[in-house]
């Protein structure tokens, strides 16, 4: 949520900052701004409401300066306005700050500053930092930043410029990611690798509680008591082309199409057909430890939570141990009981979702064992966990997650195999699942080939103001995720129910104006699903079934999207794919901004 970039070196900073901000726009896109240190100890600050392209258009033709910071915002304190956009500056204009995260004690600090005669010009929490740094009276910029940061509580990633010290940027991190990119006599700072890959492959991730001074020729990292820390660089594993649209109209379309290959990446080298098991060395769990768990608890937010529910069912079915998923955003607030024989799994694409990161902290604080199912390598959650399985989905840019979720579901299948094969899952059953996992990429290609047909169904769905998505047991989290994707980008009300719950209340809403998308796999519940669809039809409600070829619909004449069958435990993976296309084409029909839906951002690093 929100993006930070910084540059110091021999080139003109503005174009580099703007390009970086464009790359980060998916993290927040309601306003943007840059500060560039100019000649004669001045700072040139430009801020606009809206997208980075508005900022580019608003900049003066000649904006020179070789040091600068930039920000793209997702509003938390105060609406999207020019005054609230970052960078924020001190009264004398000397200090400029960009910030991701939330300062919890901002109101108190704002009041103190106002009492001291400071004229606050925004409604943001961030502005206090600029004033605190400027007023610190410390001898060095580093000391002033440390002093200011010591007065705030909350989460932050910040980058600071001081026109009196144009040879450096000072940055700090607590709870929001911040990365230094190392170039040839130039250095970059960003909240996300996406802004760095075009410039360098050498990066250093700051840890929570760490500060850094970044010069054109190097950097120094240190802690709040000014002790130096050792921060070696690592090599980025993303190619610049991975971040381009590659001819697709939207990142979401590209990422949906990439799913077969992204599944191939997550399973590469991890499936052992002979022993019917998955090899997940990164979990850091011995077979004995795996066997010692008597329960699994999965934690994630939003769609990651829904996929967690898919995973919990897989684990119960294949490993026969109780498993459930819970919204990480609620978990830590109910003082959860952490049990030594429970395996906790944190699931997150970004690895930066603060609610999930806090849930991990809560588990660790209470001595629990938590592993991650995370996409972004080196992210906060990945580093905080005791071990994990990287998703290898590649960069995901569209706010509406697709390929990462599919890889999460496959990741859960791998974990379920590992837990199952140290228990009662037979070698033959393990091999059955492995063969089915290997077949998934081609089966997804078949579903994707039916995109034109799904697009036609989407046009019909887009014409309704409200939709139900229904499913049972394995199909219910599929329905939840289908409704989530639909509402997120088409802005249509879409609500998921267990099919079995319809008659306990929601059926009252069914009429000609409220269509239902029903998830109807060819499993032991197919007959009951058919009966529910009949009840909907009898009340005039339209139904679109996402189903398998061999489900016998008898007299029931409803439109169907047919997906290939896999092993029943893996059905949710394939049943979800058409719902992504349904949402995408509904949003396309309605003409919405598919990759950047209103009010949302890709990586939710605030509570
Ligand atoms: C929906 C979506 C969100 C995320 C959620 C968690 O399409 O993308 O619901 O799933 O914000 O994000 P991560 O997986 O990054 O923790």
From TrEMBL:
Keywords: Aminotransferase, Cytoplasm, Glutamine amidotransferase, Repeat, Transferase. Residues 285-425, 457-597 form the SIS domain. GO terms for cellular component: cytosol. It catalyses: D-fructose 6-phosphate + L-glutamine = D-glucosamine 6-phosphate + L-glutamate. Residues 2-217 form the Glutamine amidotransferase type-2 domain. Pfam families: GATase_6 (PF13522), SIS (PF01380). GO terms for molecular function: carbohydrate derivative binding; glutamine-fructose-6-phosphate transaminase (isomerizing) activity. It is found in: Cytoplasm. Gene3D superfamilies: Glucose-6-phosphate isomerase like protein, domain 1 (3.40.50.10490), Glutamine Phosphoribosylpyrophosphate, subunit 1, domain 1 (3.60.20.10). GO terms for biological process: carbohydrate metabolic process; fructose 6-phosphate metabolic process; protein N-linked glycosylation; UDP-N-acetylglucosamine metabolic process. The keyword Repeat applies. Residues 83-92 have a biased composition (Basic and acidic residues). Its EC number is 2.6.1.16. CDD domains: GFAT, SIS_GlmS_GlmD_1, SIS_GlmS_GlmD_2. Residues 72-92 are annotated as: Disordered. Signal peptide: none annotated. The active site is at 2 (nucleophile), 602 (for fru-6p isomerization activity). NCBIfam families: glmS (TIGR01135), PRK00331.1 (NF001484). Homodimer. Catalyzes the first step in hexosamine metabolism, converting fructose-6P into glucosamine-6P using glutamine as a nitrogen source. This is Glutamine--fructose-6-phosphate aminotransferase [isomerizing]. It comes from Amycolatopsis camponoti.
